[in-house]
Amino acid sequence: MSGTIILQDEDTPSHISLKYFVKCGQESDFKERRGCDNVKKGEELEFRVQIALTKCLSGDTRDVFKISPVGLQEEVSIEVISMCECPCASYPEINSPTCLGRGNLSCGICECAPLYSGNTCECDIADISDKGDECKQEGDQIECGGRGECKCGKCDCKSRYSGNYCECDNESCTRRNDELCSGEDHGQCECGTCKCKPGWSGEACECSTATDKCIRAGATDICSNSGDCFCNKCSCKITDEGRYTGEFCETCPTCNDQECEKYRISVHCTAFLESPFIGGNCDQVDNVTVAWINSTDDTYLNEDERICRFQDDNGCTYRFIYLTTDVVKTFKMIMFGEEKKDCPKPADIAAIAGGVTALTLLIGLGLILLWRILTYIHDKREYARFEDQRLKEQWARDDNPIYKDPETTFKNPAYGKG
To answer: CA 59 to CA 257: how far, in whole Å?
Structure first.
C-alpha cells in the first residue's frame, strides 16, 4: 500500500513567508515541494521548512501558526518573535579576521567591504561575471549540475564529485572485489577513470606491472621479444611469419625459420645417414655435429636456442635444436622417448583382413536372423487370419441325394419256410 503525504499550514500571517523542502524515499537531496507521492508503509520522509519575515514587527509581537500533514491528526505549533535590531550591532569587530580582513563582523555576520562578498568575504566581486553563469556548464540550467554549490564563481563540489562544474563522478570507476580501482593501495578513481599507483595497471588497477613471471629462467628478454607482458603474464604476438606460443612466447610452430631450412638436410643426413627426401642423397651435404638428447619440453630452451620441426617423405617427424650464437653450429636431436623419429605405425594387414572377414560374417548372420524373424512374424499373422476366418464360417449339414450306402441289405422271402 502507498499514499501521498502533503504538508499544510494554518493561521499563517501574511508577513511570514514559508518554503517547504522534502527528501522523498531514496533521494539524496532536498527538493522544494510540499510532499511526496507513493509513500509506502514504514518509509521515512524528511521535511525542512524555511521561515522568513517580510517585515519587522513592532514591540514584542508574537505570531503562532501550525504545520501539519493533510489528513493526519498531528501538527506542529510554531511561535515566531521578530528581532529586527540586535544590541551587538552597536559593537562590530572592524576588519575581523573571521571576515578575512575584508569586512566587519557584526552579530556573527560579516558585513563585507564594497569589493567583496561571501559568508566570510572570501569572494572578489571583480572575478565574478555579471551574468552569474560561471558555475554553469554549457547547456546546463542548474549551477554545478546540482552536485555542488557555486561559491565566488566556482563550484564547491560534494564529496564524490569533482571538476570545474562537478561533472566528474569519482565513485563510478570499475570495481574489483567490490572496491573502486581494486582498493586505495592500487589506485584512485578520478572522473570515472582509475588512476593507478606505481606498480599497478589495468582498467581497475588490478594488474601488477612486475615482469618477473614473463622472463624465462636464465634469460633477460621479456616474453622472448615475441609478446607483451600484461598482468605479469605473457600475451604472445601473431606476426606475418606465424603465431608464437608457450609460457614465455618462446616457440613458433608455424614460423618459417630460415636457419631451420638451411640446416635441415645436413642434420638429417648426419643423424640418420640418409636424405629426408625419397630418392635424395647425402653425397654433397656438409657434415655437422649432432648430439642426441631426451628432453622434449620446449620450456627449457635457452634464450639463444631455437627448435626446428620437420617431416620427411615417409611421414616421420623429427626435431632438432640449434644455437643461434654458435659460429660452428652445434645441433641437438630430440628423441621421441626411445625412438629417434615419430613415425606413423604401419597398418596391420592381417588384422584388417580378419576384421573385415569377421564383420562380413556378422553382417550375414544378422541378415539371416532378421529374415527368419520376419518370416516367423508373417506366418504367425497368416495363421491367425486363417483361424479367424474359419471360426466365422457357418456350415449347413444335409444328406446328399446321389449318395449310396456301400452296404446293401436283402431279405430272402423263402428263408425259414421249409
So the answer is: 105
